[in-house]
Design a protein that fits this description.
The complex is a heterodimer.
Chain A (H helix, E strand, L loop, with lengths): L16 H5 L15 E7 L5 E7 L8 E3 L30 E2 L5 E7 L2 H10 L1 E6 L6 H4 L15 E9 L2 H7 L2 E13 L7 E7 L4 E6 L4 H12 L6 E4 L15 H12 L4 E4 L2 H7 L2 E13 L5 E13 L10 H9 L8 E10 L13 H19 L3 H8 L8 E2 L5 E2 L4 H11 L2 H10 L6 E13 L3 H6 L9 E7 L5 E5 L8 H13 L6 E5 L16 H28 L7 E3 L2 E3 L4 E3 H9 L14 E6 L7 E13 L6 E11 L6 H21 L29 E6 L21 H12 L9 E2 L3 H13 L1
Helix pairs in contact in A: 5-6, 8-9, 9-10, 9-18, 14-15, 15-16, 17-18
Chain B lengths: L1 E7 L2 E7 L5 H8 L18 E4 L2 E4 L12 E3 L8 H12 L9 H13 L6 H7 L11 H12 L9
Parallel strand pairs in B: 1-5
Antiparallel strand pairs in B: 1-2, 3-4, 3-5
Helix pairs in contact in B: 2-3, 2-5
The chains are: A alpha+beta, B alpha+beta.
Chain lengths: 779, 160
């Protein structure tokens, strides 16, 4: 594959590193424009209240903007074509009612953030406090505390999925396992919070918005609609973005208001989210409730799964996809990569007086994986077998690929059971079992647990159309341009916020053009310089944008060869484009020379060939329901039965994402995802009290994993290229975060097996472990 | 306003600052030293770590007015520093950064660990990084990069 050491398959070091290592990255808050004023928002202190009045001190007039001051701003409204989906309008600044703590009410403008906050504190809103709806399972069908009055209940959408005959499975079952599971609400918490800088460019007659976003093009689509402005008059730029992980792939009220203010005022305005605002207002994630039964035979073969799923989606739907997809994805992913023949899932997505729910690495899959893998573990215990034997018994075997699961996921390729074996080997399972037998001198209990999953990635038109999405992220684009000196610029519609896509995409072009990546620039995240694209989410960027880069590069290569053949006086079929030149039987000509002909000396062009080396291509994989990576994760824990504290001793991932364009970057994504998944498993949680107040507003109460409590993450690879993409690559950005809650919960279960305690709720905090132990003792 | 005179990256600086201005905002907004990042502004994430009189400190928790007569060193001020050069090289080679937001402060903390001879084992390095959150990398590669950089300085750290 890598014939020049820098193309597809090479662990090329990152071009992004140098600027960050010297503190020269350019994040939104780093951009200085003369005359910029800072914005602070007045936010709701209540979960649910009617706004009686907003009073602004006389001296603050003209510097405080409420909804009434920006009448041209329309509400955010998500369109869904799913049957029965309800979509509430969301005014970017609250009008008559507030529906979660942190909802924006007014924007205050001052020369510094501190002074803007002083203004915000001087604004007095008079509220009529209403009962908060915070219990999703209990309140979803009730009209007593409606989040949106006109609905009559609190359901965004409910749906049922049934395949096979679950009642027959129940009758045939020799083993029945029923459990309730809970995955608590959390934050995505990139280290850089959100931020927006907006100004009016009078020369170009446009409003320019710098935003910490994963999706600049679709933010522009929304701004045009909501502000009633032609798209040509809006430019959205995502500069360096300090982590995204999903929450930054949505439109937010602040982006709309800053753009509206920039149009209203004749100076730049800037809003830099602080961490408290982030924890209150940036999309929350997870918050799933489950009640699930697994039916199995005496061998541990799972005959059927019957699931009830409730997703607590918060007060509004985030644009563009709304709150609808989380539960749907959970329902389809829940049967995992298994040959389970019968399945029923009822799922409800519920409006509550909490922060709107959005995507976060893995979306519904960490919950789905948690549930099915805990059940596999419990079925194994019920039939008295090693969980990995039961796992292997139920996994889709390679000779049945492609295989459509009972949840409707079309797994394209791979040997799933071999990932289980590889993972067990990476953890040296016999040694762990021996240590377990021996016992710990400090009284702690050792446990080992696994979880296997399939990760739908790079899904496109078919998948999103089936979900009822009004905006279908079904392709990516690349404009590839060779300049007069033979250097290359790739302009892509995606956005890179740490993944290393500037490096990886340059490798794809290098592979196709035979040009050193050092001579290739990658531009992304700017609606001005790139063709339309959807951005970076859904583990799609390498497959989709990489595919577009490959195609555009090939279009240029064909043209280079045609011009080269003319210059070399040979047939095009005899030419080869590699090593920075086009070569024929008699000699070669450099790409720089061909570029000169294409731009500056067009008298050397062959007949019928136009000047310029500039090509735009789009790409969607051959199958738009997604290509499937998979992995088995394994965790070794030590649980202290006295304190409930869980220490993670070892962690391993055995994964298969097909062809790796840059294995170093792949491993970076895996490790980062795993540690975020460990956060979900053990630490991260935003609880709410009964009045709807969120109880984690700082990083002192919202705990993220640090270096000190983690082991090094081990990785093993399997390689099954998919037939449906360029080079056989599969997306893999999210997978790392999918399995840790399941693997760790199974390890804790294993550690406490003698006590008979299990924890079926994340995060697995010492308090929850102790409660589980006490419950087991009471039995 | 409070008048302060201090050294920033070796240069003498004088300014009048509002009493509530943090050192981080002073560096970023008034001195344009934007390599110092803000991740929480309440002293947990560590992204704003700079050196104050040679020791790592949270610039978000320190007031600019309290920095009179002090020496501040930010990520922009290590051009000729041998330990920092080794760290930068190893962070690059071991893919120890992704989005780059935590990186400047991570480097400053890592350099301090090496100089204080607290980077001799994985355990030591991990404990030493307890005050710096990275949300992207999962830390494995950061720990490796620091360990490798530390090896280059054997027993006696080079001129720091």
């Amino acid at each position: 594959m890598p014939d020049e050491g820098f193309g597809v398959g090479a662990s090329l070091l990152r071009r992004e590193d140098d600027r960050h290592l010297h503190g020269r990255g350019q994040f939104v808050a780093d951009i200085k424009l003369p005359g910029t004023m800072d914005v602070a928002f007045v936010r709701s202190p209540h979960a649910h209240a009617r706004i009686r009045s907003i009073s602004i001190p006389p001296e603050a007039r003209g510097r405080v903007f409420t909804a009434a001051d920006l009448p041209s701003v329309k509400p955010i409204r998500v369109v869904s074509h799913s049957t029965g989906a309800k979509s509430p309008p969301w005014p970017p600044l609250a009008t008559d009612k507030v529906r979660y703590v942190g909802e924006a009410i007014a924007a205050c403008i001052a020369p510094s953030r501190g002074e803007a906050e002083d203004l915000a504190n001087a604004v007095v809103a008079d509220f009529e406090i209403l009962d908060a709806m915070i219990d999703a399972p209990r309140g979803m069908r009730s009209s007593r505390h409606p989040v949106h009055e006109q609905w009559g209940d609190n359901l965004y959408i409910e749906h049922a999925l049934e395949n096979g005959d679950i009642d027959a499975a129940a009758r045939a079952a020799e083993v029945t396992v029923t459990r309730e599971f809970r995955m608590q609400r959390q934050s995505g918490a990139p280290l850089e919070c959100r931020g927006v800088l907006a100004y009016r460019d009078h020369r170009l007659d446009e409003v320019v918005l710098y935003a910490s976003t994963q999706t600049p093009h679709t933010v522009r689509v929304a701004l045009a609609e909501i502000l009633d402005l032609e798209e040509r008059r809006i430019r959205v730029v995502a500069p360096d973005v300090g982590g995204g992980f999903g929450p930054k792939a949505r439109l937010y009220p602040e982006e709309i208001i800053l753009a509206a203010l920039a149009l209203e005022l004749d100076h730049p305005v800037r809003w830099i989210e602080d961490r408290n605002e982030h924890l209150l207002t940036t999309a929350h994630t997870r918050d799933h409730h489950y009640k699930v039964t697994a039916y199995a035979d005496r061998q541990g073969r799972i005959l059927g799964i019957d699931a009830e799923i409730v997703v607590d989606a918060g007060a509004y739907g985030l644009w563009p996809q709304g709150p609808y997809h989380e539960a749907g994805m959970v329902a389809r992913a829940l049967p995992g990569p298994y040959t389970i023949p019968n399945y029923r899932a009822k799922h409800c997505t519920v409006a509550t007086n909490k922060t709107p729910l959005g995507p976060y690495r893995g979306v519904g899959r960490p919950g789905a994986c948690f549930v099915i893998e805990r059940l596999v573990e419990e079925v194994a215990r019920a039939v008295g077998r090693e969980p990995n034997e039961v796992r292997a018994l139920n996994l889709v075997p390679p000779d049945q690929m492609p295989f459509t699961t009972i949840g409707g996921m079309r797994l394209d390729s791979g040997d799933y059971a071999s990932s289980v074996r590889l993972c067990a080997k990476l953890l040296d399972m016999p040694a762990v079992r021996a240590r377990q037998q021996q016992g710990e001198p400090d009284g702690r209990r050792i446990g080992i647990g696994f979880a296997t999953f399939a990760e739908q990635t790079a899904h496109g038109a078919a998948e999103f159309a089936a979900r009822g999405a009004a905006i279908i992220p079904g392709f990516e684009s690349c404009t590839a341009r060779i300049l007069t000196d033979g250097s290359v610029v790739l302009m892509v519609g995606i956005q890179s916020h740490g993944q290393g896509l500037e490096t990886a995409l340059s490798q794809v072009a290098a592979e196709e053009l035979g040009i050193d990546p050092a001579r290739i620039s990658v531009r992304h995240g700017d609606t001005e310089s790139t063709a339309f694209g959807f951005g970076t989410f859904a583990s799609r960027s390498m497959v989709m944008s990489g595919g577009a880069v490959a195609r555009a590069s090939r279009m240029l290569r064909d043209k280079l060869c045609r011009i080269g053949a003319h210059l070399l006086q040979c047939d095009v079929a005899e030419t080869r484009c590699a090593g920075g030149m086009v070569s024929g039987p008699q000699g070669s000509v450099t790409i720089a020379e061909i570029s000169k002909v294409a731009h500056l000396r067009m008298d050397g062009l062959p007949q019928g060939v136009d000047p310029l080396l500039d090509a735009t291509a789009t790409y969607e994989p051959g199958i738009s329901t997604g290509v499937y990576s998979y992995a088995t994760h394994g965790a070794v824990v030590a649980v202290d039965p006295e304190t409930g504290f869980v220490e993670l001793l070892d962690y391993a991932v055995a994964e298969d994402c097909g062809t790796m364009v840059n294995p170093m970057l792949v491993e970076g994504q895996i490790r980062g995802g795993v540690v975020q998944g460990i956060g979900t498993a053990l630490y991260e949680e935003i609880p709410y009290d009964e009045t709807g107040q969120p109880l984690a507003g700082t990083l002192a109460d919202y705990l993220m994993p640090g270096a000190a409590e983690l082991p090094a993450i081990k990785i093993g690879h399997l390689h099954t290229p998919t037939p449906h993409t360029e080079y056989g690559m599969k997306g893999m950005g999210e997978g790392g975060a999918v399995a840790p809650p399941a693997a760790i919960a199974n390890a804790v279960r294993d550690a406490l097996s003698a006590i008979g305690a299990e924890v079926n709720e994340t995060p697995i905090t010492p308090r929850r472990v102790l409660a589980a132990i006490q419950k087991a003792h009471r039995r | 306003m409070t008048a302060i005179r201090l050294q920033i990256n070796g240069a003498a600086v004088a300014d009048d600052v509002p009493p509530r201005l943090s050192l981080a905002d002073f560096l970023r907004e008034r001195r344009n030293l934007t390599g110092t990042h803000l991740g929480c502004e309440h002293g947990v994430c560590g992204a704003c770590t700079v050196l104050v009189d040679g020791a790592p400190a949270r610039s978000c928790l320190m007031l600019a007015a309290a920095c009179d007569d002090r020496e501040i060193r930010t990520i922009e001020g290590f051009a000729d520093d041998a330990v920092m050069q080794a760290l930068r090289r190893n962070f690059h080679q071991h893919h120890a950064l992704q989005c780059g937001y935590c990186t400047p402060a991570m480097l400053i903390t890592a350099r301090d660990l090496i100089l204080r001879r607290r980077a001799g084992s994985e355990r030591e390095i991990r404990d030493g990084l307890a005050g710096n959150i990275c949300r992207c990398t999962g830390y494995t590669n950061i720990v490796t990069a620091i360990a490798e950089a530390a090896k280059e300085f054997g027993k006696e750290p080079a001129n720091a």
